[in-house]
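Friendly challenge for the regulars: who can give me the structure tokens for this chain first? No prize, just bragging rights.
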Amino acid sequence: MRFVHDTLAQRVLFASGAAAENLVAEIKELGASRVMVIAGESERELAQRVAAQLPVAYWHHEVAMHVPVEVAERARKQAETHQADALVCIGGGSTTGLAKAVALTTGLPIVAVPTTYAGSEATNVWGLTEQARKTTGTDPRVLPRSIVYDATLMLTLPVDLSVASGLNALAHCVDSMWAPRADPIDRALAGEGIRALRIGLPLVAAEPGGLDGREHALYGAYLSAVAFASAGSGLHHKICHVLGGMFDLPHAQTHAVVLPHVLAFNVPTAPDAERRIAAAFDAESATGGLARLRAQLDAPRALRDYGMPESGITRAVEAILAAAPPSNPTPVTPDNISGLLHAAWEGAEPR
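First reply, four minutes later:
Bragging rights claimed.
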């Protein structure tokens, strides 16, 4: 056994019902006195409640999927205008992504308060979209200094969005089994993440107002993101970044649809990953375990349901081939990626 593993330096506070007090403590620890709070319009009321005791210099509510460059530029300008000395992002992956875009050019520290299972808060990955092309990268400046996890903030997240967001987290785990920098620590974290999500998500679907399922799912989402931050972006994420940027598809639902197809694509040539994933699902096979979970959750099935045109598949194949990691277990070709996308587009069974 021989590997190199980097662990990102980050403080995590996990306590249901304690978001406001933990947030105050973290801002005090930073010594910040002019906080810029980033939260989308749908999170405005929640943000004002959670951040009520902070020294807020500016509330920023313009948030958009995939972080368009022009949206990022306006947020950066507001941070400069209001002389912000720290960023607090309260919301899902798009909100965290916008805070990262501001931190990328300003160096301002971020305290993240997630309200979905996106996982972006635990990575040093940023993403920006310009002219239908999403560009991603890594930079230590965008890693939030602290994460404040509070499962009570998830209780109002609708079941369908919870399912899609949770399957996005599951995709982080699966990609972390064979991504370019995957190592034994990543695989261990990812396996525990799959187990927690496998327990938590059905509980969320069955009892949306219950804390047990929400806490399991949130714990699993964190583990998935830590594994992904270390292992890097595998084929699944390369595909979803291309599709999301090119066709402006909803992030979590795109991941939920594509995941079973990438899993079926790779497990025949990745037997160790197949065994680990199957064990985490408590199933005879990785694909069978995922299929059983998706059936329990009534998961999203087809890209066409979210606005992707069938005519766009050929263009997407070219971009995916250019972005696909050379180390992917199954070699990618125009034919097999085209077949994968056609199946995901129409909602066919993975093949």
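The CA atoms of residues 173 and 190 lie 4 Å apart. The chain has a mean pLDDT of 96. Your move, everyone else.
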